[in-house]
Amino acid sequence: MTRTWQITDVTDAARARVAAARLAAAHGVPPLERTRLAASLSTQLRLCLTKGGTWRLTLETGTASRATPEAGATVLHAVVTPSRDDAAAGQPPWRVTVPCPEPVPAADADADVEDPAALAEALLGADEDTALVLDRLTEQENLVDFHREELQQTNQGVVALHAELDAAGRAQREAFAAERKARTEAEHARRRLTFLADASAVLTASLDHHEIVRRLPELLVPEYAASVDVWLFDQDGERPGPAHPAAAVVAARTGRPQYAAADPGGLPGVDDQPPSALAPDRPLLCIPLSTRQAPLGVVTLSPPGERWDPDDAVMLVELTRRASTAIDHAQRYQHNRDIAETLQRALLTELPAPPGLGLAARYLPATHGLNIGGDWYDAFRQPDGGVITVVGDVTGHGLRAAVMMSQLRTALRAYAVDGGSPGRLLTRLHTFLHHLQPDLFATAVIARFHPDDPTVTWAAAGHPPPVLRTPDGRVRTLDEKPGAMLGIPLKQEIADHSVRLAPGSTLALYTDGLVERRALGIDPGIARLAETLGSFGTAELEADLEASADGILRPLLSDSERDDDVCLLLCHVRSS
Q1: Helix 310-347, helix 399-417: angle, nearest 10
Q2: Does the pTM of the predicted model rise above 0.85?
């Protein structure tokens, strides 16, 4: 259905608006949509009257296109266009479309809007629509007020929540700061403990007290001290002289750490002193090197910055205490080592010169650790003209081993006066050692030469076998069944063994320090000794047995750190 109105003045516009509202109501357009249609149409007609001319309003019902959400439903189209012969002709038409849920009755659709009664009814309907819209607007305003009040309450809650979050944030930041501080302190404590452990390992690794004193400043400068001076007292107990800071003298006298500075240091366990006259512009921390007997010296340090952290000062005092223990151990070790080495060398035999037999011996003390004192060699004549040669090794090291070695040497000489073969002598030594020192053991090899006998008799007890070089240059080890170690809790009779010696033969007796290496064992070392001994000619051994002994030691010890004593005894049967 299509309706058209010509509009040239205000009356035509009013009639057209009323007809449009009535037609929309007849088609069941909702009041709100009718009001919007009427308002939009009134605004457009007012613009048309302002422009002047003749305009045409067309109202048409139809079906919505498929492109719209209301596809297939009935809609009402309102179109305003200028007349064809008017000056506004050619302008784009104004269009609006509203949905029509209900079909329009024919009578209502064809009614004449110019009927006064119909016009009044349409106006009343428009008023009702307006009133309905106003009611809707009132409801919306009430709803807006409700939401506004809700929003205000929400805003107040948000403000309170922000306050709580801000307080929680401050508390969290304070907790984070405390955690960072605790983590930093823990990291510093871990670093100090790690340094203390590493530095202690470095200081205790050496048995030379001069080396310990040299390493101490290297460990502390520059992280924990700007300078480190170490004063060791003389062995007679003299204290530092006047050239040292007064605080160092007080530390040596009292045995307590002293802090010399213009302001008190407040360091735990440290006494405060006036600034030193030798260094008035810098603080000094003087820590005694204390032992149970007496102070060994004083360590004087200056701080890397203006002053020390109290925890760093505690660590420095502890490190100095450990350094004093290391220095004390090193001095005691050196003292005991000197005594053992002196005793060992004092007990070494001056070799005899029997007819037809050349002897050359070498003894080298260990260069690492307190490993000296257990190895010995000896050679002496028996009453019947025979010559006893022996090389032995007492288990253990140090002064005790040296003393035990001297007792075994003396006992062997005493037993040999009564005669007896090497096996018999070793058996008696075994019994002697077992009863004298049950917790000490020894190894030994004895060879007996006699000018009237072309054979050599030997016996071994847990000792590396002798190595024999024959005049033709061949070398063999005399490894016939030896006895067990001397002193073990076992009754044993050690057997003798004999081999004929041609003139020009050389027999080598030695201790395990010459041939044994920790990584390789003893057998490769014995093989090297045999090879080295075989490399010498008979004439060379005959001419200078002493030089030959040195020539054997050099290649065998070139790869050794000599952490054990070394004994070598060469016995050469002369050709003439």
Answers
A1: 10
A2: no
